[in-house]
Input
Amino acid sequence: MRAVAAFTRAAALRGGAALLLTGAGLTALAPTAEATPPDSTLGALPAGDLAYVRLLIALELLTIDFYGHALASGQLSAVETRHARLVHSNERDHYAFLARVLAASGGVPLTSADIDFSYPHGAFESASSLLDLAITLETLSLSADLGAAGSVVTPALSGAVAQIAANEAQHRAAFAPAAKATLFQDAFPESFTIEEASNALDAYTS
Output
């Protein structure tokens, strides 16, 4: 798949320093329509916070793209399809919030037109490979969000990213039984630095 110059690690970190949990299924999640999103009118953010927002936007675009392919693959069961539709909606809500935060600080958010993602060969050719990748991407998102929540210095942003991390953990728990993955294990799930999260994201950009 083509590489898009608009997205590079340098772009994700631009302006900044170089820098699973609950629920047996999505019944633990409130429907998106009933959720109240955090306040995104945070104004100008420091450079390090902006770097994290840019990176998390790219990760949200990855998961949005992944679940779009997953839903189109025909590999999911009826229950898994319902889960994937709700997760897809959640990820779009996360993206919209982060994009508003970046725009309010004078930045221009990446869109799906700016990045071309690539996936392991055969990722969407069987339910097992698709679900394995879902677990991998949800774990990546969780670790990146935990790192961001503990690193950004704007309290309102930290709180909102922590909410996103909790939601990503719910997503992972929802798919874990079908993927034969552990629901949870560590008392303190892994937290990624911005560089670790960026390196992990690189594996899905071509």
Observations:
- The mean pLDDT is 86.
- Helices lie at 9-13, 47-73, 78-104, 127-151, 155-179, 194-202.
- The radius of gyration is 16 Å.
